[in-house]
Structure to design on (828 residues):
């Protein structure tokens, strides 16, 4: 029996309740294009979602060589057949008529079509010229969170051992670098301790700055199903907005933006004061508890209440919920990572689990979540601020081991300083030391902070910019060479989600025109540059996704992210498997740290730690003296006020974030009709009392201005905390007359026109949630609504007479309950 559900108006679909410690039941979601019946599907091709970090497994429907729909994979551990709105509808962007199909080069100030020989010839000629004249530090690579593992690894090898540059990072710097840094600071190594399966067992689930309902909607479905089953969990939500999570929470704390450390220190204070510490676990597995206890001794709820503007009694209730939990699962995302004292706050969540002994057991874990779909691979493969395989750039033995894998001299691999983070790369480009910047699969002209500055950097005459993408994005419009790339469903590769589950995504259809896979583009560049190993052979010896994966396995062998037990064939057969997968764990590893802390010893750890308040790096001597036995590190931090606070001229705090229906800068989701109709344009959220005080109403056109720039949008009046404005960051200019940025005919639309160039001292993640802003009325609305969803955290304060957002025709999805699906994943 199938049901038909409007998955725009009802994004999470119907419930399949289940009890604590039971297995999450199957519910298969399917969406086919208009006019396509299931019997017409000629092939179902295995894949997983590329539009968030959840890793939802799906099959792509193929009819006459084109994509015709998707369905969830019932047998997969991550989603058990469920798909979120972006999964169900986002695939339609692949067939957009404005896909790039031929390379472009800049001639006389204009981008014109050319052949691959011409485009790559220019890239290689400029690369060689710069290497000769200025050295490897003049080239930088800024990549994505949406490529495949095989592509990141190839890029890391050619950049670090081929070009020899230290300037390689991903846009994961914007979303997940704090997750990586927090895990390294606490456990000595990246890698999520917990598992999505912990949702099935936890009695308390705490979400810190994590709007799970919109960022990982399928796992929110899982929580909703548990809430309707036996022994439902109690939820703690820390978020200044009235998210769906907040509405279901037993305790909701809405702190002032930038005060997370103060709040967490008060929670730790109360947990310690009330005797909820597992001292046996602390003594056996950690160092640093005494310093933490001393640091938070004076951090009472009353003290935090004055800083966070949250009632002290509510902080006490939250602490009792956390302290009384039998099995606690915590998740963390951008409300922490993109805010002030990001790493310090994320580490305090880790501390909470360490002092309570809540690790390594079903239902007891922490997930420092990811934002980008393949962010975990960027980190594993060294395409961000680390060396491949979670190796330590300060450890000569690690560098020598990587040199052995690549068959190069250790001196070939830059390790004279930390790998350059993205914000510093753009600063170097602004100053002129980076003269070539290769951007693959991301759109910094919309996603980076202070966009006026970013556009001026990318538009420099002296900067040679290469952009590799699907569409003529705002960034591509400023490039010197544009390379048309194939995307998900048009190529084969693996990627890993936020709980270490590795999926294979197979090629279902051909890419349009002359578009090439990112792997093929990188391999072509390496061949043309003639990169060699120390014996004179080719540096890169693989030539397709499967051989690239086998090469990566050799690099990962013996490292925390060990893939040696995996193959493309096995993933194709078995579905998602959690790393490490090796002889000791042939079927994967559900949870890390089940028998103590594994990778914090000074000889094997990924880094030696940093001061959480200043970012100052420790060396091996300091690390070894503090943690000679390789235990988990309990690291404390004091609260410091944000660098930019409201003023008389800019009286609001401004925070940015996501909406359920869009991903990143809308280059894909903005081209999917149902998703675009659900949230077609930017809006500005304000609380009711602030709106009333300023004589503003729903639908008014307003301008948000910071010391850096301005944007305009229609007003949505919600119940978010007083003194705060929220703007979704997805909206740029590709679908406006201006095309690449604001001009006389197109006012500011992108949230990042206003955000500040500032980053966390430890993780170097930009702070998108700490700006001060002013609000001005531009024109009265006509009584209509803002173009914002009504189903999410953006729901209006008064829903009387407000039409629920729907996607119109074609947004309905078939949902098949458990018991009617072939366990092999085949047709019913």
């Amino acid at each position: 029996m199938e049901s038909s559900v409007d998955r725009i108006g009802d994004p999470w679909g119907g419930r399949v309740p289940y009890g604590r410690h039971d297995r999450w039941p199957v519910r298969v979601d399917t969406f086919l294009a208009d006019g396509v019946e299931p019997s017409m599907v000629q092939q179902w091709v295995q894949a997983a979602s590329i539009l968030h970090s959840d890793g939802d497994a799906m099959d792509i429907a193929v009819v006459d060589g084109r994509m015709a729909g998707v369905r969830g994979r019932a047998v997969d551990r991550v989603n058990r057949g469920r798909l979120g709105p972006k999964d169900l509808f986002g695939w339609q962007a692949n067939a957009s008529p404005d896909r790039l199909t031929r390379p472009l080069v800049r001639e006389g100030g204009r981008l014109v079509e050319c052949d691959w020989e011409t485009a790559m010839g220019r890239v290689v000629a400029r690369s060689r010229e710069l290497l000769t004249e200025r050295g490897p530090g003049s080239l930088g690579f800024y990549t994505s969170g949406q490529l495949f593992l095989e592509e990141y690894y190839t890029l890391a090898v050619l950049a670090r051992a081929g070009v020899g540059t230290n300037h390689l990072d991903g846009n994961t710097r914007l979303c997940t670098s704090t997750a990586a840094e927090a895990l390294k600071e606490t456990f000595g190594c990246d890698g999520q301790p917990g598992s999505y399966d912990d949702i099935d067992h936890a009695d308390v689930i705490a979400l810190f700055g994590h709007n799970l309902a919109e960022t990982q909607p399928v796992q929110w479905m899982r929580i909703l199903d548990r809430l309707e089953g036996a022994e439902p969990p109690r939820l703690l939500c820390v978020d200044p907005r009235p998210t769906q999570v907040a509405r279901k929470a037993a305790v909701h704390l809405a702190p002032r933006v930038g005060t997370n450390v103060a709040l967490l220190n008060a929670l730790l204070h109360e947990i310690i004061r009330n005797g909820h510490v597992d001292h046996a676990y602390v003594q056996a597995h950690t160092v640093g508890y005494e310093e933490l206890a001393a640091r938070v001794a004076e951090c009472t709820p009353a003290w935090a209440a004055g800083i966070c503007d949250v009632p002290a009694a509510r902080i006490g209730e939250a602490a009792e919920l956390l302290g009384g939990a039998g099995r606690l699962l915590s998740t963390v995302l951008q409300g922490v990572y993109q805010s002030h004292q990001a790493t310090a706050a994320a580490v305090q969540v880790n501390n909470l689990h360490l002092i309570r002994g809540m690790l390594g057991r079903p239902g007891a874990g922490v997930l420092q979540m990811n934002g980008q779909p393949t962010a975990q691979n960027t980190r594993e493969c060294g395409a961000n601020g680390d060396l491949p395989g979670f190796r330590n750039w300060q450890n000569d033995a690690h560098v020598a081991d990587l040199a052995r894998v690549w068959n190069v001299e250790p001196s070939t691999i830059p390790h004279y300083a930390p790998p350059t983070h993205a914000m510093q790369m753009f600063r170097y480009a602004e100053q002129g030391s980076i003269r070539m910047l290769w951007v693959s699969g991301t759109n910094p002209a919309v996603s980076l902070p202070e966009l006026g500055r970013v556009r001026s950097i990318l538009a420099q005459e002296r900067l040679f910019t290469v952009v590799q993408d699907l569409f003529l994005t705002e960034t591509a419009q400023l490039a010197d060479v544009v390379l048309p790339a194939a995307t998900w469903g048009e190529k084969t590769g693996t990627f890993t989600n936020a709980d270490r589950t590795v999926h294979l995504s197979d090629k279902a259809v051909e890419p349009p025109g002359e578009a090439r896979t990112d792997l093929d583009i990188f391999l072509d560049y390496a061949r043309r540059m003639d990169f060699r190993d120390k014996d004179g052979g080719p540096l890169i010896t693989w030539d397709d996704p499967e051989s690239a994966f086998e090469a990566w396995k050799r690099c990962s062998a013996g490292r925390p992210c060990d893939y040696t037990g995996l193959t493309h064939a096995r993933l194709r057969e078995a579905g998602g498997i959690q790393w490490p997968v090796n002889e000791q764990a042939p079927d994967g590893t559900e949870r890390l740290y089940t028998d103590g802390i594994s990778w914090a010893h000074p000889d094997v750890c990924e880094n030696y730690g940093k001061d959480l308040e200043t970012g100052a790096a420790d060396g091996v001597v300091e690390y070894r003296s503090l943690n000679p036995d390789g235990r988990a590190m309990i690291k404390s931090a004091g609260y410091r006020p944000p660098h930019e606070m409201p003023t008389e001229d800019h009286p609001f705090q401004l925070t940015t974030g996501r909406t359920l229906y869009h991903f990143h800068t809308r280059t894909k989701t903005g081209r999917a009709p149902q998703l675009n109709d659900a949230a077609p344009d930017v809006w500005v959220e304000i609380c009711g009392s602030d709106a009333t005080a300023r004589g503003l109403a729903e639908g008014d056109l307003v301008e948000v201005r910071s010391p850096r720039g301005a944007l305009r949008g229609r007003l949505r009046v919600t119940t978010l905390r007083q003194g705060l404005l929220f703007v979704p960051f997805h909206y740029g200019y590709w679908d406006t007359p201006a095309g690449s940025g604001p001009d006389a005919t197109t006012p500011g639309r992108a949230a990042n026109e206003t955000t500040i160039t500032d980053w966390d001292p430890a993780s170097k993640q930009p702070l998108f949630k700490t700006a001060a802003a002013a609000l001005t009325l531009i024109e009265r609305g006509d009584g209509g609504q803002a173009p914002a969803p009504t189903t999410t955290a953006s729901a209006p304060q008064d829903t009387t007479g407000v039409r629920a957002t729907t996607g119109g025709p074609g947004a309905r999805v078939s949902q098949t309950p458990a018991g009617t699906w072939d366990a092999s994943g085949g047709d019913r």
Observations:
- The two ends are 11 Å apart (CA to CA).
- The longest helix spans residues 116-133.
